[in-house]
Amino acid sequence: MKDSEVISTLNDLIETCKDGEKGFKTCAEDIADNQYRQPFLTLATSCSAAAQELTGLVVARGGDPETRSSLSGTLHRRWVDIKSAIMGKDDEAILNECERGEDVAKKSYANALEKDLPVDVRAVVERQYQGVLKNHDIVKTMRDRARVAAM
C-alpha cells in the first residue's frame, strides 16, 4: 500500500475520531441525567487521544493530518441537537443517537482494517478498533439503563 493511501485511510479515521469527540461532548451537554455526563466526557477524551495517535502516524509518513471533523459528523450532531430540542432532551433518544454514531465509527475502522495496512499502522488501528467496540458497548449499556429507568 502506498504511503498516500495509508495517509488517506488514517485521515479518514482522524475525522471519525474527531466526530466521536465532538459527538460525545454534544451528548454530555444535552443529556439531562447527570450520571451520563462524565462517561460521555471520558469517551470524548479517548477519541481525542486516538486522533492524536493517528496524527502522529500521518506525520511520520510525511502527510498532512486532518484537522477537522467530517461534514456528516457535523450534520449528525446538529440532528441530535434538533431532536433533543423537539423531544425535550429525552435521554434515551440522545443515547440512541450516540450509539448510532458509534456504529458509524465501527464501520469506519472495519473498512480501514480491510485494507493492506503496514504492520505498525494495522496494530494501532486494530487496538483503536477494540476501543471503538468498547465505547459502543458503554453507550449501549447506558442506553439500556436509561430505557429501564424510563419505564
What report would you give on this structure?
- With 151 residues, the chain is mostly helical.
- The chain contains 5 helices and no strands.
- It has a single domain (3-150), classed as Ferritin, core subunit, four-helix bundle (Ferritin, Up-down Bundle), CATH 1.20.1260.10.
- The protein has helices at 3-30, 37-60, 71-87, 91-113, 119-150.
- 82% of the residues lie in helices and 0% in strands.
- Helix 1 (3-30) packs antiparallel against helix 2 (37-60) and helix 3 (71-87) runs antiparallel to helix 4.
Question: What keyword list fits this structure?
Answer:
151 residues; mainly alpha
List the helices and strands and how they pair.
Elements lengths: L2 H28 L6 H24 L10 H17 L3 H23 L5 H32 L1
Helix pairs in contact: 1-2, 1-3, 1-4, 2-5, 3-4, 4-5
Structural class by SSE content = mainly alpha
Give the CATH topology.
Ferritin
Domain module count: 1
Average predicted local confidence, pLDDT: 86
Protein name: DUF2383 domain-containing protein
Pfam families: DUF2383 (PF09537)
Organism: Oxalicibacterium solurbis
Domain DUF2383: 5-115
